[in-house]
Write a structure and sequence with these properties.
Helix content: 40-55%
Low-confidence stretches: none
Mean pLDDT: 95
Largest sheet: 8 strands, parallel
Strand order of the largest sheet: 7-6-5-4-3-2-1-8
Bound molecules: pyridoxal-5'-phosphate
Structural class: alpha/beta
Shape: globular
Oligomer: single chain
Length: 232
């Protein structure tokens, strides 16, 4: 494995990352937005440290993982070499993993049910860590997908704030694969507006430009940077 202090390697990842960065810049400018207002979350699920290093060497510092255990295996060591990292949890969080998630992650994007909000509040009460929190909204009402229903989102956000004392930064969604993403992104932005939430995590490899057009502050891009993932 390459060491962090070696000269940056030129890899396929480096090239793809440059292209993604260029597209983010262009989409932001086309939408009349400051490119600096869009944060790239490099999604590294299924990628090992060797595949991640070129992105770190290229200066990327925000990364997303969808499993607590996998992140726990990979990131503590990388953090030792790259202290300014910001790690996002973008996959479902079980209540029995909340403690570990609070230790590992700087942003939890998948807060989606009262039981989890209560568990988070309990863990945070005994911890100095303060991960930023995003509420995941199941904009497509897909039964197999995590996320609070768009119809329950306002009440759930109030519950998190008032009953659990949690500070909510924003919202996240994963539109149904077979549908146009834009109505889902527009709905997420609308729920964000009426709840006074600034962060919007929306857009993946296939549709991050559309996400930016509709107000994304965070885009979560995996395969367009790292190539195809090995099966989980
Ligand atoms: C895997 C994943 C991504 C990245 O997907 P790509 O299509 O590879 O960009 C983004 N968000 C979530 C929640 C994911 O699980």
């Amino acid at each position: 494995m390459a060491e962090p202090d070696e000269a940056p390697q030129h890899t396929a990842t480096t090239d793809r990352l440059k292209q993604v960065r260029a597209k983010i810049d262009r989409s932001a400018r086309d939408a009349g937005r400051d490119p600096g207002s869009v944060h790239l979350v490099c999604v590294t699920k299924g990628q090992d440290a060797e595949q991640i290093l070129p992105a770190l060497q290229a200066g990327e510092r925000i990364f997303g993982e969808n499993r607590v255990q996998e992140a726990g295996r990979k990131w503590p060591e990388l953090r030792g070499s790259y202290p300014a990292l910001q790690l996002h949890l973008i996959g479902p969080l079980q209540t029995n993993k909340v403690h570990e998630a609070v230790e590992l992650f700087d942003v939890i994007e998948t807060l989606d049910r009262p039981k989890l909000a209560t568990a988070l509040a309990a863990v945070l009460a005994g911890s100095a860590r303060r991960p930023r929190l995003l509420v995941q909204v199941n904009t497509g009402l897909e039964p197999q997908k995590a996320g609070v229903s768009p119809l329950d989102a306002d009440d759930f956000i109030s519950f998190c704030r008032s009953s659990c004392g949690l500070e909510i930064d924003g919202l996240m969604c994963i539109p149904p694969e077979a549908e146009q993403a834009s109505p889902h992104f527009a709905l997420l932005a609308e729920i964000g507006r009426r709840n006074g939430l600034k962060a919007l995590s929306m857009g993946m490899s296939a549709d991050f430009e559309l996400g930016i057009q509709l107000g994304a502050t965070h885009v979560r891009v995996g395969s367009a940077i790292f190539g195809a993932r090995s099966a989980p």
